[in-house]
Amino acid sequence: MRTRLVALALALWPAACATAEPACRDLTFEGTRYSLCEAQAGDDIRLFQTAPDGKPYGSFERINSALAPEGRQLAFAMNAGMYHADRRPVGLLVEEGFERAPIVTSAGPGNFGMLPNGVFCVGEGYRVIESRAFAAERPACRFASQSGPMLVIGGKLHPRFLVDSDSRYVRNGVGVSADGSRAVFAISNRPITFHEFGRLFRDALELPDALYFDGSISRLYDRGARRSDWGTPMGPIVGLVVPTP
């Protein structure tokens, strides 16, 4: 009996593998290759900032170690918002419905303060909301991270983006569908401008709202591709959690 069960499992295994879709893929748009990771409403997307010891997770490896007792692991993850030298988030951060840091609605220096900036919210679906609209509405978010600038706002690029800008970095961010059923996380595989990155979300992915996460420290973890970008400890991290096989 056992021999027949093993044979049956081996027969079914290739078919199951063939139908499983990877969470991440590569896309070349306007001559630049991007890595894209997608989540659907109902997927276990989480923001990771505060580890059980009260300190920032800081790395993909620490998150996977914390998830292991649950029988879970990251399918993909990336840095998800700007942070101070001690890795405290610059703007709003919500973890499991608990507000770790408050929203910031004033203009300020750097990319974060280049209004309009925005909030990525994980609730029943996904939303990218301009920060002042978020502060007025206060939607229910299980997880949320504020960053800036917005890349796409209602189908339009951020008004301060320049086509001929010479500011180029490896950049990462997130865009969401109009109905909130889909979130696409993207990272460029070479230095690009804000205008180029915004066009990816607006023109290639046709997502009406998108938010910039960061540039100089952008990193991706993709278990399927065996990719885990190295670097200094991070602040907020967003990731898709899945059962460990």
UniProtKB/TrEMBL annotation:
Residues covered by the Phosphodiester glycosidase domain: 75-218
InterPro entries: NAGPA
Pfam families: NAGPA (PF09992)
Cleaved signal peptide residues: 1-20
Keywords assigned: Signal
This protein's name: Uncharacterized protein YigE (DUF2233 family)
Species name: Cereibacter azotoformans
